[in-house]
Design brief:
This protein has helices spanning 14-21, 34-40, 57-62, 81-86, 99-115, 117-125, 151-161, 176-181, 189-195, 215-218, 238-246, 285-303; strands at 5-8, 25-28, 46-49, 68-71, 90-93, 143-147, 166-170, 185-186, 198-201, 226-229, 252-255, 274-276. Strands 8-7-6-9-10-11-12 form a seven-stranded parallel β-sheet, with helices on both faces. A five-stranded parallel β-sheet has the order 2-1-3-4-5. The longest helix is centred in the last third of the chain and has 19 residues, at 285-303. Helix 5 crosses helix 7 (151-161). Strand 7, helix 8 and strand 8 (185-186) form a beta-alpha-beta unit. 35% of the residues lie in helices and 15% in strands. It is of the alpha/beta class. The structure holds D-malate. D-malate binds next to loops.
C-alpha cells in the first residue's frame, strides 16, 4: 500500500523531516512558485509551509486529497483558515516554537538601531573609521512602547526590563493586573505613540492591525522615536513610515518584515537610519528545530486520525 504523501513547501528542519520519513512519502516544492505549487498539491495528504506560501482557497481547490496544512511557525496570516475549514482541511501550527527567537530578534534590531551597528560595520568594512557619525543613544531610562503583549511581546518586555527601560504597552486584550505583574504600564495607543522613545511591534496581522501605525499615528510620535517591527509587514504602514523618516519625524527604524515578501527593494531601504533584515525573526537553529518537529508530529497525528493537541 502506498504511503500518505507530505508536501514540504518551505525549508523544514532535518529533525522535522526525520519525524515524517518513516511513515510518509515526503515530497518537496517551492511554495512561493504558484505554478509549481498548484499541481504539486493535487495528490498530497499534508502540506507543510512557513511564511512564503499562501495557503488560500485556490490551493485547497487544487488539493483534492489534502487533510492537513501545517504552518511551521507562529502566525497563520498566510493560511485562509475559513477556506481550509470549508474544504475539510485541518490547520495546525507551532505557536510557541519561535517566540524566544522572535523576541530576541526584535531586541537585536532595537540595539542595532540605537547604536548604528550595521552602519558602523558597513563603513568600517569600506575602510572608514567614523566614530562621531555613528553616535547612538542609550536604552537606560528610556521609554519603550510594546505594541501587543502576547507571548512574544511579554518576552520582549521582560528582556527590555533588564536594560532599565520604562515599559509601557498597548494591548486591548490584556488585563491591567497582568500587565502590572509584568512591570508594564498599560496605555492607550495614542499615549504609547506620544511617550515612547522606542516602539516595538508584537501583533499578529489581522484586519484590525493592518496599517495600525499609519500617517496619523506617525504624526503623534516623538522625533527621537525608533520603531522596530519584527512581527508582520504592513502593521506599520510603509509609505507613512517613509514619509516620517524623510521629514525627520522618526529617528530610525528596525524592520524585519515587509508588506510584500520577499522584499528586495523599498523606498525604506534608502534611509541610513533604517536597519533591515529579511524576515529573520524566526530564523535560529533552535526555533527551526522546534517548529519543524512540532509540526511534523502534528501532521503525523492528524494523518493517523488522532487528536492534535496545542503545541
Ligand atoms: C512565524 O510566523 O512564526 C514566522 O514568520 C515563521 C517564518 O519565519 O516563516
Amino acid at each position: 500500500m502506498s504511503k500518505p504523501v507530505v508536501l514540504v513547501a518551505e525549508e523544514l528542519s532535518p529533525a522535522g523531516i526525520a519525524v515524517l520519513e518513516n511513515d510518509f512519502e515526503v515530497r518537496y516544492v517551492d511554495g512561493a512558485d504558484r505554478d509549481a505549487l498548484l499541481p504539486a498539491v493535487a495528490d498530497v495528504d499534508a502540506l507543510i509551509i512557513r511564511s512564503a506560501t499562501k495557503a488560500n482557497a485556490e490551493v485547497f481547490e487544487h488539493a483534492k486529497k489534502l487533510r492537513v496544512v501545517a504552518r511551521a511557525g507562529v502566525g497563520l496570516d498566510n493560511v485562509d483558515v475559513e477556506a481550509a475549514t470549508k474544504a475539510g482541511v485541518m490547520v495546525v501550527n507551532a505557536p510557541t516554537s519561535n517566540i524566544v527567537t522572535a523576541a530576541e530578534h526584535a531586541i537585536a534590531l532595537l540595539l542595532a538601531t540605537a547604536r548604528n551597528v550595521p552602519q558602523g560595520h558597513a563603513a568600517l568594512k569600506q575602510g572608514e573609521w567614523k566614530r562621531s557619525k555613528y553616535t547612538g543613544v542609550e536604552l537606560q531610562g528610556k521609554t519603550v512602547g510594546v505594541l501587543g503583549l502576547g507571548r512574544i511581546g511579554v518576552l520582549a518586555a521582560q528582556r527590555l526590563a533588564a536594560f532599565d527601560m520604562e515599559i509601557i504597552a498597548y494591548d486591548p486584550y490584556i488585563q491591567a493586573a497582568r500587565a502590572a505583574q509584568l512591570g508594564v504600564r498599560l496605555v492607550t495607543l495614542d499615549e504609547l505613540l506620544q511617550q515612547s522613545d522606542f516602539i516595538t511591534v508584537h501583533l499578529p496581522k489581522t484586519k484590525e492591525t493592518l496599517g495600525l501605525i499609519g500617517d496619523r499615528e506617525l504624526h503623534l510620535v516623538k522625533p527621537e522615536v525608533r520603531i522596530i517591527n519584527a512581527a508582520r509587514g504592513g502593521i506599520v504602514d510603509e509609505a507613512a513610515l517613509d514619509a516620517a523618516l524623510t521629514e525627520g519625524r522618526v529617528a530610525g527604524a528596525g524592520l524585519d518584515v515587509f508588506s510584500t515578501e520577499p522584499c528586495t527593494d523599498s523606498p525604506l531601504f534608502k534611509h541610513d537610519n533604517v536597519v533591515i533584515t529579511p524576515h529573520l525573526g524566526a530564523s535560529t537553529h533552535e526555533a527551526q528545530e522546534k517548529a519543524g518537529t512540532q509540526v511534523a508530529k502534528s501532521v503525523k497525528l492528524a494523518l493517523s486520525g488522532e487528536f492534535v493537541p496545542d503545541a
